[in-house]
From TrEMBL, chains A, B:
Gene3D superfamilies: NAD(P)-binding Rossmann-like Domain (3.40.50.720). It holds the Pfam family adh_short. Signal peptide: none annotated. The gene is hsdA_2. Transmembrane segments: none annotated. Its EC number is 1.1.1.50. Keywords: Oxidoreductase. SUPFAM superfamilies: NAD(P)-binding Rossmann-fold domains. One of its GO terms (molecular function) is 3-alpha-hydroxysteroid 3-dehydrogenase [NAD(P)+] activity. It is an enzyme of class 1 (oxidoreductase). It comes from Roseibium album. This is 3-alpha-hydroxysteroid dehydrogenase/carbonyl reductase.
Length: 257, 257
């Protein structure tokens, strides 16, 4: 396969690049930093900057078999605007810019997050974000009092909803899209999530036994990018060592029979 | 891997057996009929009969890396009792009988169905079924007026709920379990689903472009049985060519942006 990957220089994305290379696939990595793992080509791209995204997508030619939208910023105080720019607007713009460069039957995989699991409860705000122009973002953030944690969660809610909402359009183009929702993965940004989510994360990790490993998430991303998963469309796959299944079982009083 | 598979003689199960064999895995098939595809061993088993299940699980020795609970009866008029016996009680009994024969880290994969997607709305009835003794089943069916279609849906709701509910118990034993929910797959029993679900199924298949293929479902089952999916626990993965994503997008008015 020929794969376009954002965020290939660290964390989950670096493991995706490594796994794809191991399987003999060609990887074009779009990242602000140069990947440490071997990729076929690195294109420097800043996903918070529309001009940089345009230049990056213009820089590639030929067709791709998959896009993996993995780049994203974690919840970190003061970053609310850039989180929404990169995790939502940048992802959407990059994907739209690459759509015409996809082979028939190609797959798109988005890295969402378990932090986006409440998308249904927050659907009004998600729809508002999805219909927003980028220049309206500062007013949207201040009017709604969106802090960095809410910005992060909202960006991931929007990715999950968009993944579902675009299913019919993509089928009409012989394309498909899915997302993954990892929780508490042991990467360089785990401390940001610990600061943002506190005791809830500590409890979840304790129940699962440990945080997830980036390579465990990468395996699922690669599967969803591959023809073997071809009939999975518009779905979000949770990869969390059972954290949400256990929390849900407890809430619904169905644990252990 | 060494895999215990129920329902390997037809439909999705036959494709699972074929795919596992192709990958060099050892398959023990538990089925009432002899598999047409090559398996390492066939053990005749009737999942509606506790004695037959006991004899079948007693007949194998050594440890397994995965159990694939795939056998199931479709909705067909008059079969309500045997549907619940095979799809729920039989699955549960077979799995419980095999638990001590699993290697550390082994995976269990259950074939549920999109027909079980309403498990949350029907949770009271699902819990009632899950706490039922098999000899109470006829009274349960008649008191609640359960027909074959409801029996089928209920059995699959229970499989999805059990898959989630057992997560913590299984983690304590270093095991994991997930389910798949296919919709409208072109196997020998597709006509039963067409009769049971009528226009809704026709509409879904039209939107997806075609029914699913058994091998498309088998690929995902094999992935969930394999170490590559090791951090996915207690989840249900929908495999439906986008049918439910499109229906959900329509219901929530989020289609196409």
């Amino acid at each position: 396969m020929r794969v376009a990957l954002t965020g290939g220089s660290s964390g989950i994305g670096a493991e995706v690049a490594r796994k794809l290379a191991e399987l003999g696939h060609e990887v074009t990595a779009f990242d602000i930093s140069e990947p440490q793992v071997q990729v076929s080509r690195w294109i420097k791209a800043d996903l918070s900057d529309p001009g940089s995204i345009q230049a990056a997508t213009d820089a590639v030619s030929g067709k791709y078999d998959a896009i993996i939208n993995n780049a994203g910023l974690p919840p970190r105080d003061g970053l609310e605007e850039v989180i929404l720019k990169v995790n939502w607007f940048g992802l959407r713009r990059f994907m739209d810019g690459m759509l015409d460069k996809l082979e028939p039957g190609a797959a798109i995989v988005n890295t969402a997050s378990r932090a986006g699991a409440m998308w249904r409860d927050n659907l009004e705000e998600v729809k508002a974000l999805m219909s927003l122009q980028p220049d309206e973002l500062p007013a949207f953030i201040s009017e709604r009092g969106i802090d960095a944690t809410r910005a992060y969660n909202l960006s991931k809610e929007a990715v999950i909803v968009m993944t579902m909402a675009e299913t019919e359009n993509l089928i009409a183009r012989n394309l498909r899209m899915n997302s993954v929702s990892p929780a508490a993965v042991s990467t360089g940004i785990l401390k940001d999530f610990a600061a943002a989510f506190g005791d809830r994360m500590v409890k979840n990790v304790a129940r699962a036994g440990r945080p997830g490993l980036p390579e465990e998430v990468a395996e699922v991303i690669v599967f969803l990018a591959s023809p073997e998963s071809g009939w999975i469309k518009g779905q979000d796959v949770t990869i969390d060592g059972g954290m949400s299944a256990m929390a849900m079982s407890e809430a619904l009083e169905i644990s252990g029979t």
